[in-house]
Amino acid sequence: MVTEKSSHEERLQQLKAFDQSKAGVKGVVDAGITNVPPISSVQIKIPQPPATIRYLVFLEFQLWISLTSVRR
After folding, report:
1. How far apart are CA 25 and CA 36, in angstroms?
2. What is the mean pLDDT of each run of 10 residues along the chain (72 residues)?
3. Alpha-carbon distance 37 to 69, whole Å?
4. Which of 1, 37, 38, 39 is most buried, taking the most CB atoms under 10 A from its CB?
5. How many CB atoms lie within 10 A of CB 54?
6. Domain of 17?
7. What total of structural domains would you count in the chain?
8. Are 31 and 23 in contact (CB under 8 A)?
9. Nearest residue to 15 via CA among 28, 29, 34
10. Per-residue confidence (pLDDT) for residue 1, from 0 to 100
């Protein structure tokens, strides 16, 4: 089982090895790499807004629909 900590440590080791190689982006391109290496991508976890905020957005949308239908 791969834990988040071990994958983080592995990524740090890969980044350190890449940095020490002094190849840089030009070296990667010159090597013919066509895909973005995994060490270059970061997964960002975007938290869901609380239910109260989602409900307020829903109410605001309902109000907007009501007001636009009154104007017609």
Report:
1. 11
2. 67 80 76 72 74 83 80 58
3. 51
4. 39
5. 11
6. 4-71
7. 1
8. yes
9. 28
10. 46
